[in-house]
Write a structure and sequence with these properties.
Elements lengths: L5 H42 L11
């Protein structure tokens, strides 16, 4: 992380708790995790080249 230390991370967590409250936070993190997973899966799918299959003639 670019220049984020302990105090900065604590401040960010406190601000997020104040903005969204304790009850909404797990739901927000779950949605964020799902979004990151979908993004990673899509990125990995695009970066892979399609595999070429050889066709044998009889």
């Amino acid at each position: 992380m670019a220049g984020l230390g302990g105090p900065e991370i604590i401040l960010i967590v406190v601000v997020v708790l104040l903005m969204f409250g304790g009850k909404k936070l797990p739901e927000l993190m779950r949605g964020l995790g799902r979004g990151m997973k979908e993004f990673k899966d899509a990125k990995d799918g695009v970066s892979e080249e399609p595999k070429k299959t050889e066709v044998k003639e009889s």
